[in-house]
Write a structure and sequence with these properties.
By secondary structure, the protein is mostly helical. The chain has helices spanning 3-26, 33-69. The termini are far apart.
Length: 70
């Protein structure tokens, strides 16, 4: 198979990939605006709680290390 034939086959496969991807995206159930807002709030609250948790752990561990090396 020559270079140009492989190049043409590659472009054909790329086109098939994008066409198939578009067909799959049509099957997706997209969330409504209300659902998206609630999901966003849940994510922000969760990230905030995890950040506070690790902040508290950091304070505790740094205090213990200062106390040990102290």
């Amino acid at each position: 198979m020559g270079f140009l034939a492989r190049l043409g086959a590659s472009f054909k496969r790329t086109g098939v990939f994008f066409r198939d991807s578009w067909q799959e995206l049509k099957k997706v159930r997209w969330p409504s605006r209300k659902e998206m807002v609630s999901y966003t709030i849940v994510v922000l609250v969760t990230v905030t709680m995890v950040a506070i948790f690790f902040y508290i752990l950091d304070i505790i561990f740094s205090t213990v290390v200062k106390w040990i090396t102290g």
